[in-house]
Amino acid sequence: WLKLGRPTRAPLHTTMALSKLAGCAPCSKHRRAASPCAAGRRGGVQKPAIIQDSSFVSSDGAGSTTSDCETASTATPASPMPSAQPGPDFPSLAPAVVGTPKASKDQRGGRSSSPVNQAKCAVSSESNGRGWLRRLTSRRLTRSKSRREVSDAEAMQIKQLMQLMDAGQPLGNLSDFAKEYGDEAFCRRLLRKYDGNISKATEKFKHALKWREQNKELLATRQFMQGSDERVVGADLEGRPILYACLKNQMLPGSQCLDQKVVAMLQAIDNMPPSVETVAHIWDLHGMQFRISDLNPSPLIQMVQSLEGYFAERLQELIIIDMPRMALALKDAIWPLVPEKTKRKVRFMTAVQAKEYIQVKCDAEVASRIRAIMEQNRDPRISLEERKRNWLRVSECGELVPAFEQA
Fold this sequence. Notes:
With 407 residues, the protein is an alpha/beta fold. The protein is built from 17 helices and 7 strands. A hairpin with a 5-residue loop joins strand 6 and strand 7. Strands 1-2-3-4-5 form a 5-stranded mixed β-sheet, with helices on both faces. A two-stranded antiparallel ribbon has the order 6-7. 21% of the residues are buried.
């Protein structure tokens, strides 16, 4: 518009584009370097300005010799502009510019540096930016809507599970002790465990609350007959408690150790920070003693069922160390009953591999403590009674305390 000497106002989108162009630091620097004013300052020769408009004058009345970018952004009118008919739209400028001298090519991109072409580029870039923003906003809204739909569906399923405890429903006759476990958090873990399968979650919900009713004394008093050294020995870098047991220290048949496993799991849950829901288990099978009763897979099956129901989604991983060949038959009998999701959490390692893995997963203090326990269990010079005196667990307050009253 300044090239044509038209005093009329340019369209709004063109004005915005030119104002952005004038404020662009790299563009302004390049155009000032290529302007006759800059050339005159370098070579001592004053050349006429490219853009001159009689409506823009300096303070002494002479014509302005500033560059076109500086004129468009900084000059002020000395007198009111005369009224004129509205000019043509922005696209109609093309025929009038054909006769003007060609602008120099931009050294960076080879594009024309004329105000018209740069204004077009600015308008195009602005449009592309708005389109990208619209697409990004649309994707975010879509994800947010999807999360809301999933949340609403999950809320309905949780409500459906909790209604099983209402009067006249299948679990309505249970005690308040049993019902208090069927809260929203437990329902959410069940639904996550079974991928939203409400039928499977309902079955496990009923089984868990009935099991709690039957084991009220154990859960309330936490009294058990000690049969092994299973205890909380620390936490990993994410704050998840670690339960450790070595079968060399198993003093009772596996069927008589289930109560201790339940209490150890409850103690691990007590140690969980607010953002943690799972426990890491370490089964050290070194020194495993085979009894006739241990060949019965029933205790292990009951433990797996508790992990799938009452302690659903509490298992982070299970590390099995130094499994002997004789235990493979027991493993083969149980493995088909283990869900695929649980199988992916089981890791079989040697003692060396386990030490290296624990070194990565835990801080130096906890990793050193677990390595010392494993080495003590493998030292033939240390008796069972001596090992018992060193059986410590991490309490809810993070302190090392005697693991068992008998120790």
